[in-house]
Amino acid sequence: MAAGRKDLAAVGRKDLALQALHDRHAAELWRFALRMTHDRELAEDVVQEVLLRAWRDPDLVTRDDAAARAWLFTVTRHLIVDKWRSAASRHEVGTAVVEDRSVSDDSSQVLDRWLIAEAMSGLSAEHRSVIGAAYYEGQSVADIAKRLRIPEGTVKSRLHYGLRTLKLILQEKGVTRS
Fold first, then answer.
1. How far is it, in rounded angstroms, from Cα 134 to Cα 10?
2. Is the pTM of the predicted complex or chain greater than 0.90?
3. What angle do CA 84, 35, 62 make, to 5 degrees?
4. Of the candidate ranges 85-94, 100-109, 143-152, 169-178, the one whose mean pLDDT is the lowest
5. Which protein family is it in (predicted)?
6. 124 lies in which domain range?
């Protein structure tokens, strides 16, 4: 009898956590899906599917809010891309001239930049400075060493360990695989 109550309490806590996740992110997910699909009903369907997958994922409610948000937006983007691919294979256009209706959508780049910036904030200032100088500013190891007044070997070491830590942070967020 007590075990049944514990299971019921755990389900209740999970439902409350998922309700809170829904309340915080569902509207933004729908707007994001709408911008990508330009179809209100499809956007609603995608968000519903994402939230259903969130409900099925027992680990999602234990993640911090930023990681859960990143997971929700990534799954939304993947579902929409999957729908585009499947629709494209079923509805091929057989004309000689195809109208160019392409619309630039930078949402995936924005999400990627947001995830990287958030992950970079988890690094030490030393690691962040050398990674930023090397990858965002395009500086060489020698230039970074001169600017920071440290040996080139230290720059290389900080790059190595900083990138390794960055990879671990992204893995914890579910962005990359091990």
1. 47
2. no
3. 85
4. 85-94
5. Belongs to the sigma-70 factor family. ECF subfamily.
6. 107-178
